[in-house]
Specification:
CATH architecture of chain B: 2-Layer Sandwich
Structural class of chain B: alpha+beta
Chains: A alpha/beta (234), B alpha+beta (83), C alpha+beta (735)
Strand order of the largest sheet of chain C: 8-10-7-11-9-12-13
Strand content of chain C: 15-25%
Order of helices and strands of chain B: EHEHE
CATH class of chain B: Alpha Beta
Structural class of chain C: alpha+beta
Helix content of chain B: 25-40%
CATH superfamily of chain B: Phosphoribosylformylglycinamidine synthase subunit PurS
Number of domains of chain C: 3
Shape of chain B: elongated
CATH class of the largest domain in chain C: Alpha Beta
CATH superfamily of the largest domain in chain C: PurM-like, N-terminal domain
Strand content of chain B: 25-35%
CATH topology of the largest domain in chain C: 60s Ribosomal Protein L30, Chain: A
Distance between the termini of chain B: 6 Å
Distance between the termini of chain C: 56 Å
Oligomer: heterotrimer
Number of helices of chain B: 2
CATH architecture of the largest domain in chain C: 2-Layer Sandwich
Number of strands of chain B: 3
Number of strands of chain C: 28
Shape of chain C: globular
Number of helices of chain C: 26
Radius of gyration of chain B: 16 Å
């Protein structure tokens, strides 16, 4: 299996993702420059955090038009796995691979801290090693993580079990107090209907080693590896 | 030459915490009776053309493609003659 | 004939102008005059401070690297490069842009050496938050730092914030950055090899920041608003691209030298690169990418547009360099070449506009500044401790201190900084020192910034020594050994004798303390003229210190870990209250002498804590600083919000005033917690180093309880302390 980590000029978490795949998951991984057009050899594409093209207009707005994003859309249509973390999630929303949009955090500040999320759907390629409703400690670090979608959209997300992670308290309460950024329905991560494109605001690559304070995010990468291994056998 | 001024604002249905913060600040300075304050973006573009109709078409396209996100934002613009 | 008003406006003195005439043997052109004015300014040439800076030790346990723009140490073949720099004056005028360009500038100083920036810290000082403008400054500065640092992907892992009236009208923004590089991959800031090309890379040049360094940084503040045009605007996205392009370029081996265009942009970079390489340089300004029309040659030379660098490239390799920069959508243009005549020759469309010997530009005149001990000290240092009445309610005092702006939790600030990107931050902000791992090695580095400027105001020499000692103590508490220092020396007008006395006393204090601990000062920065119409700031020699942790498994944090552990106090509590936060916040007094500092005692305490941590005997370690023992104990209880643990302190010795035991700020004290079976081993270590050792209580429960044997002095729920400590800053800001 091969992982690819997309690099936009303003990406700043690509090395962190690369490190986890190579050194913790011990799987082959390559960087993919945003101007490249060939994704044929990859099984999973990671859109990392950062500020893609500076994000001065709107997060992810310019990334939408990069050559790589057109390829990623095709890649996703063919069933390839795509995970967008933080800015990667914002870009997936802009290109409409995932529904909804991001608003500024409710407190108008950048927020970097550990939060807790609840695994609402563990039947995805990205979460199959978690227990249902498992509480995970992972950091967030963003300015625009206040997820928004209209009422019909939210209904659909719920109906199709597309909400994968919800912000919660240490004890698992999903409520206003445990919502760090104002996200609608405490949404921290969603998946597309087809189930192969995940977007999430928390950083699993920052919580994949005990020494950094949490290893709760690592099972996302391990789940992907398990799922890919399984698929290849079939 | 033509100049386009494009205003991008959050949709009415979406709460605007920046606007709210500024409303509070204005009220604390003693300005009473503020119905609502909303914040948006202003983009100005100078176009090397005199064809207003064509410019309008182009700018509208720019807004839809890049400048505004229709899920959360509205836009409006005006185009005027400049030297 | 150049009128005296012109050069005086540029910050040059009569005798400096005479010297320029002697060097050139003719009248300078406007461009030449501008170039001299910036190169000889305090910001670039250090004419007033250089003599004293020679006192600072440059050697220590690790091999040092001392460069013009930054310095570092070599640890296991790895160069750790770091520096702290001030951006006070621009931040006072326009806090967001001032702070963000401060961060951008210091990070450029790091990566132009070939080192990848891995962490930033910052030391900030503002006037009282009761003033709306100071709240605006704090918000703006924090916003600028988060905007720039977060976008770059360099974690902001630590720092400090103090509030004091002396910074009304002149805030301090000291930014520090750390980078790492393989030792043999380091680049030089020089131009050598006649015929090699000089390339301009990065953003285009505009009129922003013109005169920023010479005029802004060399005059006291009077009418701030008028100076707005001199503030530069930062673009972190471009800088991010510049970091990657530069490191990629340096890896080619085609780069002879490289330098940031920081203060005074092209002037500094051309003359200093030529001078460092004992070369000359010829450039034509017509080739300089610009984003504004109608710029005079001197404006192009003085512009402080951000995110630009000058690179000396091996002849014939220009295309390769250009390709790398164009990949990142950045300019890379040949603007001239290296010559062998030692002259910096600036042309504008072929016409010479400046022609100056490089050395004569970079060797600023050195002044022996007169100094005099300030008269106010005699009165200030007098404190009759018997006239201070002890508190009736110790609980109330502790809560007041935990809520004071300088002591309370800075969560509101550091949660706006991305402090985890790069996935190296092992100890997050909020403990004594931040710790970052070095991927692929067992070692880690710890970093801290420290300075209690009130101590320096009351006793400049000792206050500076305390800053060094406390920084080292913070590092020890995180499990590190102090390795090297960068200093950012913020003072008032050096032409006033009492201010200069503060400066020279602080430098002496730093020098002596660093020599004692065998810690070299590898880089630094001097910022004078920090004054408002009301007077000078407190002398503020900020110490940025790096420590090395040999075994990353042995890092330590300040908060209690388990119930029923033993709490130990290393060091001595003396009957001193001078300069304490308690005296200021509770009694409204800024008086007395700074706390005593016995360097031998300090060393004994640090060595004890260090060895106990290394042997894995210790659960937590925290140094006692502002607010004294009570605040330190409270912090041990509440600074891990997910696992707060109370404490019962019933074995403290009370042979001096009670308020001095509890709130006094005696130096050289560390609080440890450990399991019962480790106690005797720690006692043995303390005995070996002759460090005072005292078991004062145990952890556990939901209260912090301190009693003197007869009476309970403090009895507070940890939740109540936590709320006060955590919420105060935000309440003060939104007041």
């Amino acid at each position: 299996m091969r992982f690819g980590v997309v690099v936009f000029p303003g990406s700043n978490c690509h090395q962190d993702c690369f490190y986890v795949i190579e050194n913790v998951l011990n799987q082959p991984v390559e960087y993919i420059w945003h101007k490249s057009r060939d994704l044929d050899s990859f099984d999973c594409i990671i859109l990392p955090g950062g500020f893609s093209y500076g994000d001065y207009l709107r997060t992810g707005a310019i990334a939408k038009f990069s050559p790589i994003m057109r390829q990623i859309s095709h890649f996703a249509q063919r069933g390839g796995l795509v995970i967008g973390i933080c800015n990667g999630f914002q870009i997936l929303l802009e290109v409409r691979l995932l529904p909804g949009a991001m608003l500024k955090n409710k407190n108008l500040h950048f927020i970097c801290k550990y939060v807790y999320v609840k695994t609402k759907n563990n039947k995805t390629p990205f979460t199959n090693l978690y227990r249902k409703n498992e509480i995970l400690k992972m950091p967030i670090a963003h300015n625009e993580g206040n997820y928004y979608i209209d009422r019909d959209g939210l209904k659909k997300l719920k109906k199709n079990r597309q909400i994968v992670f919800s912000y919660c308290s240490q004890d698992g309460d999903v409520n206003k107090k445990s919502n760090p950024n104002g996200a609608l329905a405490n949404i921290a991560g969603i998946i597309n209907k087809k189930g192969n494109v995940l977007g999430m605001m928390p950083h699993p690559e920052r919580s994949s080693e005990e020494i950094l304070g949490s290893k709760n995010g690592f099972l996302i990468f391990k789940s992907i590896a398990k799922w890919l291994r399984h698929r290849k056998n079939i | 030459m033509l100049k386009a001024e494009i205003y991008i604002t959050l949709k009415k249905t979406i709460s605007d915490p920046q606007g709210l913060t500024i409303k509070h600040a204005l009220e604390s300075l003693g300005y009473k009776g503020l119905q609502e304050v909303r914040i948006g973006k202003l983009v100005t573009i100078r176009l090397n053309t005199g064809d207003k109709k064509e410019a309008k078409k182009q700018v509208d396209e720019m807004c839809q493609k890049l400048l505004a996100n229709p899920i959360i934002e509205n836009y409006s613009f005006k185009i005027e003659e400049v030297k | 004939m150049i009128k005296s008003k012109v050069y005086k406006n540029l910050g040059l003195k009569e005798e400096e102008y005479q010297k320029i005439l002697d060097i050139l043997q003719r009248e300078p052109s406007p461009t030449e005059l501008a170039m001299f004015s910036v190169e000889w300014s305090e910001h670039c040439g250090y004419p007033r401070s250089r003599n004293w800076l020679k006192l600072l030790p440059r050697e220590g346990k690790y091999k040092t690297l001392i460069g013009e723009d930054s310095g570092g140490i070599i640890v296991d073949g790895l160069a750790i490069i770091f520096k702290m720099e001030s951006h006070n004056h621009p931040s006072q005028i326009e806090p967001r842009e001032g702070a963000s360009t401060g961060v951008g500038g210091i990070i450029r100083d790091i990566f132009t050496t070939g080192a990848r920036p891995i962490a930033s810290l910052n030391s900030l000082r503002f006037g009282s938050l009761a003033e709306p403008y100071n709240r605006y400054l704090l918000r703006g500065v924090v916003d600028g730092i988060q905007f720039y640092g977060n976008c770059l992907g360099v974690p902001t892992i630590g720092g400090e914030i103090y509030f004091d009236e002396s910074y009304n009208g002149n805030c301090l923004v000291n930014a520090m950055s750390i980078g790492i590089a393989e030792r043999d991959k380091l680049a030089q800031a020089q131009a050598t090899g006649s015929g090699n090309s000089i390339m301009y890379v990065g953003s285009s040049t505009g009129k922003d920041g013109i005169g920023g360094c010479s005029i802004l940084a060399s005059h006291e503040f009077k009418e701030g608003e008028e100076k707005r045009p001199a503030v530069q605007i930062g673009d972190p996205f471009t800088e991010k691209c510049l970091i990657e392009a530069t490191l990629e370029t340096l890896a080619t081996g085609y780069v002879v030298g490289i330098k940031d265009m920081g203060a005074a942009g092209l002037t500094c970079s051309t003359s200093e690169m030529a001078s460092a390489g004992n070369s000359g340089m010829e450039i034509d300004l017509a080739h300089v990418p610009r984003r504004e029309a109608n710029m005079e040659p001197w404006e192009v030379m003085m512009s402080e547009s951000q995110e630009r660098m000058l690179v000396c490239v091996k002849k014939g390799k220009e295309k390769e360099i250009e390709q790398i920069f164009s990949k990142w959508d950045l300019n890379a243009v040949v603007i001239g070449k290296v010559t062998d005549d030692g002259i910096v020759r600036i042309k504008d469309k072929g016409k010479i506009v400046a022609e100056i010997n490089a050395h004569s530009l970079t060797q600023a005149p050195v002044y022996d500044m007169p100094y005099k001990k300030p008269n106010y000290l005699a009165h200030l240092n007098k404190l009759d401790i018997n006239k201070i009445t002890g508190p009736k309610d110790y609980n109330e005092v502790l809560l007041k201190l935990l809520g004071s702006a300088s002591i309370c939790s800075k969560t509101w600030v550091y949660e706006q900084y991305d402090h985890m990107v790069q996935t190296n931050t092992v100890i997050l902000p909020g403990s004594d020192a931040a710790v970052i791992r070095l991927k692929g090695r067992d070692k880690a580095i710890a970093a801290t910034t420290d300075c209690n400027s009130r101590y320096c105001y009351l006793n400049s020499y000792r206050g500076a020594q305390i800053a060094v000692a406390e920084a080292a103590r913070n590092l020890v508490c995180s499990g590190a050994q102090a390795a090297a220092v960068t200093d950012c020396l913020n003072f008032g007008n050096p032409e006033k004798q009492d201010r200069f006395w503060q400066f020279k006393s602080c430098v002496e204090g730093i020098a002596d303390a660093c020599k004692f601990f065998n810690i070299p000062v590898v880089s630094g920065n001097v910022s004078f003229y920090n004054e408002s119409p009301k007077g000078a700031i407190y002398p503020t020699p900020t110490i940025g210190m790096i420590g090395v942790i040999n075994d990353i498994k042995r890092v330590c944090t300040q908060y209690f870990k388990k119930e029923n552990e033993i709490i130990i106090l290393l060091g001595l509590s003396k009957e001193e209250l001078g300069g304490s936060e308690y005296l200021k916040v509770v009694h409204g007094l800024i008086k007395g002498d700074a706390p005593e500092l016995d360097l031998c005692l300090e060393e004994a305490v640090q060595k004890t804590a260090s060895e106990a941590i290394k042997k894995g005997l210790v659960s937590s370690a925290h140094d006692c600083s502002e607010g004294g023992l009570a605040v330190a104990l409270a912090e041990c209880c509440i600074s891990n919000k997910e696992n707060m643990i109370g404490a019962v302190i019933d074995d403290l010795r009370f042979d001096i005033r009670k308020d001095a035991v509890i709130f006094g700020e005696s130096q050289s004290r560390i609080i440890l917690s450990c399991s019962k079976k480790s106690v005797s081993k720690i006692r043995d270590i303390a005995r070996k180093f002759a460090a005072p050792f005292q078991i004062i209580g145990r952890t556990g429960g939901r209260y912090l309880k301190i009693s003197d044997g007869k009476n309970v002095l403090i009895n507070l729920p940890i939740k109540r302390m936590f709320d006060k400590w955590t919420n105060s800053l935000q309440l003060l800001i939104t007041a």
